[in-house]
Amino acid sequence: MSAEKRNALGKGLSALLNDSENVLPYKKPTGNNTQVSTSPEVNSLGSVNEIKIAEIEVNPFQPRTDFDEQALADLSASIKLQGLIQPITVRRVSAHQFQLISGERRLRASKLAGLTNIPAYIRTADDQQMLEMALIENIQREDLNAIEVALSFQRMLDELDLKQEELGERVSKNRSTVTNYLRLLKLPPTIQASIRDGEISMGHARALITVNDPTQQLYIHKYIIQQGLSVRKVEEMVRDLQKSRTKKEGKQPEPISFQLQKIQDDLASKFSTQVKLKIGSQGKGAIEIPFLSEDDLARILEMLDW
């Protein structure tokens, strides 16, 4: 992925806050004078800045010490493909030294992905009130996409120590609206990037949220893009999927072996749908390949050279 594409998110998020028009320089006292560094890399309070990973030190008071290596590897792969969706937050210690406040998992995964720079919010020790004012003011902007709004809400919860009800009062939105935006951040990174880039709408995303299985979310998302489905059509697909699942609920199937699970996963990847292997007590069974429409069935049959 080109540097231009990786930086696209940072450019979009800068719309959240006042950006390079108001530079907040680092001031270093030298006797009776003050030297001011006006480096373009560090912009105004609350803006998204690209800073060097080598200049970031981990917060020594970070309570979390264990990180799932596989989860880090998965996030790293996502960052290589989509870029870092949610910036980290740092505090500036000196002209070229920052201390991590939040986002150590994202920082570690970015290092694994080979990034040298990372998008970050830069805070000072006493900027909470200014940050809150900037976020509230800019959340009202009409040119923000749903992911940018969701990230702003999440940032207010994390950094200003607010509850969802309090957040709703600050931004003049009811709690259900705030919750709907925050739930977007639980979707797979690929879908979040698609919302950010305008490939699917907030309505599409809200329908996908009701699907519990990330694999199915990704499949339906891919189908939305390929077929140009309307929000209403996606809502119908999701309702049909949930009805089908309800009918099948009852006796839970017996767990399958690791080898069969891998075969099932490989088939699901190949056909871009949730393939099921049904194995009887004597080794007999069946392969179930579900489809969502006649067009989807035609796609699967073509793959089978039917």
From TrEMBL:
PANTHER family: CHROMOSOME-PARTITIONING PROTEIN PARB-RELATED
GO BP annotations listed: chromosome segregation
GO molecular function: DNA binding
Residues in ParB-like N-terminal domain copies: 49-139
Family statement: Belongs to the ParB family.
Annotated source species: Mucilaginibacter corticis
Matching SMART domains: ParB (SM00470)
DNA-binding among keywords: yes
Record's keyword terms, sorted: Chromosome partition, DNA-binding
The name this protein goes by in its record: ParB/RepB/Spo0J family partition protein
CDD domains associated with the record: SPO0J_N (cd16393)
This protein's GO CC annotations: chromosome
Pfam families reported for this sequence: HTH_ParB (PF17762), ParB_C (PF23552), ParB_N (PF02195)
